[in-house]
Design a protein that fits this description.
It is a single chain. This protein has 96 residues and is of the alpha+beta class. It has one domain. 46% of the residues lie in helices and 30% in strands. A hairpin with a 2-residue loop joins β1 and β2. α1 runs antiparallel to α2. The N and C termini lie close together (5 Å).
């Protein structure tokens, strides 16, 4: 058996943990992590626009602004967007 590393990219929140992809290189995983992070920023921007235009909800505006600020963190080890969707990049050792 051979021991090797794989890298897991996904997002989690208080009620979910979604694995999005598995990579054999850290570089590939980091690219997927960044794409996911940008996707979550775009989703938060849509929520912000909805809160501003449709709801007039100041709590929603604050929440989406906080989410966007949190998701601008580039380091997978430092990013924290709890309790909303937080992207992650993890490493797992496999015996094959």
């Amino acid at each position: 058996m051979k021991l090797f590393n794989v890298y897991l990219v996904g997002d989690c929140g208080p009620e979910h943990n979604e694995l999005r992809s598995i990579h054999f290189t850290y570089k590939g995983a980091l690219k997927a992590f960044d794409e996911l992070r940008i996707e979550l920023i775009e989703s938060a921007l849509e929520g912000l626009n909805f809160s501003l235009m449709e709801c007039g909800d100041s709590y929603g505006v604050e929440m989406y602004c906080r989410m966007m600020k949190n998701l601008y963190e580039l380091d997978p080890k430092k990013i924290d967007n709890y309790p909303q969707e937080t992207p992650y990049l993890g490493k797992m050792e496999l015996n094959w």
